[in-house]
Design brief:
By secondary structure, this protein is α/β, with parallel strands linked by helices. Helices cover 32% and strands 18% of the residues.
């Protein structure tokens, strides 16, 4: 950034982080990741655009500010994009380790009141709220998150209603699967 360029002000909250980083850092590399043995790069602009597409897909599925969206996936570039998209909507990310046992996954989904579940893989077939593959979330909005272009995944957007849907988040310290 040159001295004559004025940096955009830092956002007041995380919901605008991806767009702010794109405006501030542009085509600088934000992510480096392997795809089939070849290193790929995504710029800050690209990261912000991808998060915006996924946010649009989540919005189309009915996700609103304050909703809890569970994310059952390995750490990956897509995980980051989905997390930023969730934040952009003012929703709350509920990360779930894919190595958790099914009863633990069920407990997290039940206790968190998640209204939507984003899955990395169709191998994760945990019961609960709607299932939405991160790659399909982007495709549902516009196109573009699927790194390999294979379109793998499945989207079944359904909202879950229930007594916990509007409840404030409760910490899980000392608690476990029921």
């Amino acid at each position: 950034m040159s001295d004559s360029t004025i940096a955009p002000p830092r956002p007041a909250d995380l919901s605008r982080l991806a767009g702010w980083a794109g405006a501030r850092h542009g085509d600088a590399v934000a992510q480096r990741y392997l795809v089939d043995g070849t290193w790929q790069e995504r710029s800050f602009d690209g990261l912000g655009e991808a998060a915006g597409r996924v946010a649009a897909g989540l919005r189309a599925c009915g996700v609103r500010a304050g909703d809890r969206v569970a994310l059952l996936a390995q750490t990956s570039p897509e995980w980051t994009i989905c997390d930023l998209a969730i934040l952009e909507l003012g929703a709350i990310a509920v990360p779930i380790y894919p190595t958790n046992a099914t009863p633990e996954i069920e407990w997290v989904l039940r206790d968190s009141g998640a209204s939507l579940l984003i899955l990395e893989s169709t191998e994760h077939r945990a019961p609960g709220p709607a299932r939405l593959d991160p790659r399909r979330a982007a495709r549902a909005a516009h196109r573009g998150l699927d790194r390999r272009g294979d379109g793998a995944g499945r989207a079944e957007p359904r909202r879950r209603a229930g007594p916990r849907a509007g409840r404030p988040h409760r910490g899980a310290a000392g608690a476990g699967p029921a």
